[in-house]
Backbone:
């Protein structure tokens, strides 16, 4: 499987590279574009300030340009938090997308979004301050209306970016459970 894996608002940190290596070890080809051009951040506030400075349109342009050389292959789009939102936007706009793996985040869905049974898997903390329950319920319903086949996995007590061992949110048990399920999902595509 060809996977385009987008980083969070912290930037292209070692955890993202480690995740890509884990996916490669499972037999997948993985690309990890650096939408922040080498910048990484210690706090979510710093990352969000930088993200706002760049602007959503520029970040999306960078993501599209990173994915474009590989999109004919039928990519699985994946990402962490901000990267998940980016992956979702690209997957919903790519008719050849093979799947969507969301870790710690979702995004708005255009009313006109339409996919043909796109397999989607979301892994998110419960509760998650960035992904409240009412938002996730509405997101799930909108994805279904768009034609996606959605699976949602919640991890009680985990922090927002619980798969990143370099952050205070890290939860080893939840992270390993996430990777077991996610790898099974990718193998099913």
Residues:
């Amino acid at each position: 499987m060809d996977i385009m894996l987008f980083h969070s608002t912290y930037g292209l940190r070692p955890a993202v590279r480690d995740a890509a290596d884990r996916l490669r070890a499972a037999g997948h080809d993985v690309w990890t574009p650096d939408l922040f051009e080498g910048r990484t951040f210690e706090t979510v506030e710093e990352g969000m300030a930088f993200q706002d400075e760049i602007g959503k349109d520029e970040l999306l342009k960078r993501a599209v340009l990173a994915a474009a050389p590989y999109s004919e292959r039928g990519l699985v789009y994946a990402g962490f938090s901000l990267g998940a939102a980016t992956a979702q936007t690209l997957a919903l706009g790519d008719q050849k997308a093979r799947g969507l793996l969301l870790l710690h985040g979702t995004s708005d869905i255009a009313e006109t979004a339409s996919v043909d049974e796109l397999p989607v898997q979301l892994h998110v903390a419960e509760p998650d301050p960035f992904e409240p329950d009412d938002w996730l319920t509405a997101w799930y319903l909108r994805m279904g209306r768009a034609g996606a086949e959605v699976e949602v996995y919640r991890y009680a007590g985990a922090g927002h970016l619980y798969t990143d061992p370099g952050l205070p949110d890290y939860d080893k048990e939840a992270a390993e459970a996430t990777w077991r399920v996610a790898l099974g999902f990718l193998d099913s595509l």
